[in-house]
Queue: 4 jobs
Job 1
Amino acid sequence: MIFFFNSMRTIDEQGYHFDEWLTPKEIAKDVQQVAKQISADYADKEPLFVVVLNGAFVFAADLLRALENVRCEVTFIRVSSYWGMSSTGQLEFIVPLQQVVDNRDVVIVEDIVDTGLTIHQLKAHLRGLGATSVRVASMLFKPNKLEYEDAKPDYVGHEITDEFVIGYGLDFDGFVRNLDAIYKVKE
C-alpha cells in the first residue's frame, strides 16, 4: 500500500513503514554517472558483466543501456545471503555462473554492498576461474558496514548509512522489487 504525505511517498510493507529516499530522477542521475565511469574505463575492452540476481536486474538493465561505446557480454548468477532484513552470513549459489571468464575483464553488477561478504566471495570465485580483472558496480554502498576491504565497489551510484532499503530491485522477502524509487525504513 502506498501513502502520500507532503508529496513524499510512503510505503507500508509487512508491518514496516518506508519513506521515499531516492526518486526515479535521482536514481537515473546516479546510473548515468556510473555508466559514464564504466564507459571511460572499458572503451577499448570487451568486459563481461556478471549481474547478481535477483536484486541487481533493474540497475543492470538501466546501466547497460546507458553505456556508451562499450561492446560487452552479459550473464547472470543468483546468490543469496539474506532473509528478511538480516544477513545469514552464508553465501548460497542458487544459479551458478554459466559463462567462461578465463582471461576476461569482469564487472560484477550488484544492487547493494554492505558487509561485502557476497562480493568478497564472488571476486575470489571469479579470480579462481581465471578472470583477468574483477571490478564491482553497485547501485548502493554502505561504507560503514564494509567488513571486506577487497569488496569495496569500484563504481557506486549512491552511498547510504545503515538503513534497510527497498525498491528499484531491492526486496523485502522477495516483494517490492518493482518500485521505481528507493525507500528507507522509517524509524
Note: The radius of gyration is 16 Å.
Job 2
Amino acid sequence: MWRVSSAVASHPGLRREENEDAFCVRGDLGLYLVADGMGGHAAGEVASRLAVDAVEAFIEDTRHADVERTWPFPYDPKLSLDGNRLKAALRLANRRIAAAVVRDQALKGMATTAAAVLVDAGAGRITVAHVGDSRIYRRRAGQLAQVTHDHSWVGEQVRAGSLTEADAKRHPWRNVVTRALAGGDDPEVDVAQLDGRQGDLLMICSDGLSGVVGDDTCQAIITAAASLDQACADLIAAANAGGGPDNITVALIKIDVD
C-alpha cells in the first residue's frame, strides 16, 4: 500500500498582473493537475479554471467506475481505465472551453495547457496525461527526469535535433504551443503509465518554472528542502529570482511504500 503526500504553490511571477495558472490537488481522488491558461485579458484564467474544474468533476464522477465509463468519448482498449478517464476528462475540458466561447465571444482565442497525474495508491499505479507544454517530472534515486514531451514548436525542434535545450530556452518562439485545450477538435492527449517505487517524487509544473529554472537546479532545490511545502516555495522563489517572466505553478507528489 502506498502513502501519498503532496504540496502545491502558485505565484503570478514578477511581470504579469494576473495569474492565469490553475491547479487541483485532490489526494482523496489521487488527482494532481496543473493548467497554464493562455489568451490574456483574463481569458487564459477562465480557460485554465474551466479545464481544471471539468477534469476534477469527471474524475470524481468516475472514481468508482469498474466499466468502460468514458462517455461521450469512445473507450480506448489500448489504455488502462485510469488512462481512459484522464483522456476523456481532458477532452471534455476542451469541449467546456468551446461551450464557454459560444456563450461569450469575448473569450474567443482563450486556451490552456494541462498536465495531470492520477495515482491509485491501493493498486500501486500512476497514470499521467498532458496536452501542451506544462511538464511532469519524476525524481528517482536523486535524479530528476522529464516524463512528458512538450507539445511546443521548440520542443519538436529539440527532439528533431535542430535546437539544443539551451537554444530552446532563448528562442523567440519558445512560447508557441502545438497542442492545447482551445475549444476546437477533440485534442490528441498523450497518456502514459508509470511504475512507482519507494521515495519516488513527481513534479508537475507550468512553464513559468521549467522555462526559467533548469532541471539540475530543480533537483537540488527539492533535495535540499525540509518538506514538500518548502520545496514548492523554494522552486517559485528560484523562478522569480530568474526574472519571474510568467505565472509559476508547481505541485509535488511523493510516494512512500508501507
Note: Strands lie at 2-11, 21-26, 31-38, 111-120, 125-131, 135-140, 143-146, 190-194, 201-205, 248-257.
Job 3
Amino acid sequence: MIRVYLPAHLRTLAQLKGEAEVEVEGPVTQRTVLNALEARYPMLRGTIRDHMTQQRRPFIRFFACAEDLSHESPDAPLPEAVARGTEPFMVVGAIAGG
C-alpha cells in the first residue's frame, strides 16, 4: 500500500481525513502512483497534473524521503521506503513570492 500525503485543499476535495492509500501494480513511480490516486479519487483528476499532457501543474511539488522529486522523470522508480509504505509520497503546494 502506497501512502500519499496531499495538501489540505486536495484532501477536502477528495473528502479525506488523513493520507490517501493506493495500490500500485508494477513499478512504483510518480506516474503509477498518480494514476492510482486519480483512479481511486476521480475528483482529483486535473488538479495535480494537466489532463492532456499529464505534466505536473505549476506550483505543485513532489517529495519523498526528504528529497524533491518534482523534476525527476515521472517513470523513475520512487524510493524503496515509499514502495514499502514506510514513507509517504508527498504532493505539496509550492509558494511563490518574496
Note: DSSP finds three helices and five strands in the chain.
Job 4
Amino acid sequence: MKTNNVIQEKSFAFAIRIVNTYKILRNEKKEFVLSKQLLRSGTSIGANVEEAIGGQSKADFISKISITYKEARETLYWIKLLNATDYLSKEMAESLINDCEEICRIIGKIQITMKHS
C-alpha cells in the first residue's frame, strides 16, 4: 500500500475530529467515560492504518486492516450512543457518522481487494 493515500489521509483527519470532539465532551459536557472510549477507538483507526502500511507481509497487512475496520465499527457505536444520550448534537453526530461510515466503506473495499489479489 502506498503512502499518502486516501484512507491514510481520511483516518488522520477523522482522528483530529475525534480529539476535538473529546475535548468538547470532556470540557463542556463534563462527560469522562464514554468520551474516553470514543477517543480510544476513533484515534486507533488511523494508528492501525499506519501499522497496516508498515506490515511485514500481505497477511500482516490484512490482519491490521481488519482490526482497523473493527475499530471504525466500534467508533460508530460510541458516536451513536453519545448522540442517543444527548451528549452529541444530532448535527455533530451525523457528520461524524458520515465520515466514519465512509472510512468503513473504504476499509471494506481494501479488505476485499487484498483478499482477492
Note: Residues 58-84 form the longest helix (27 residues).
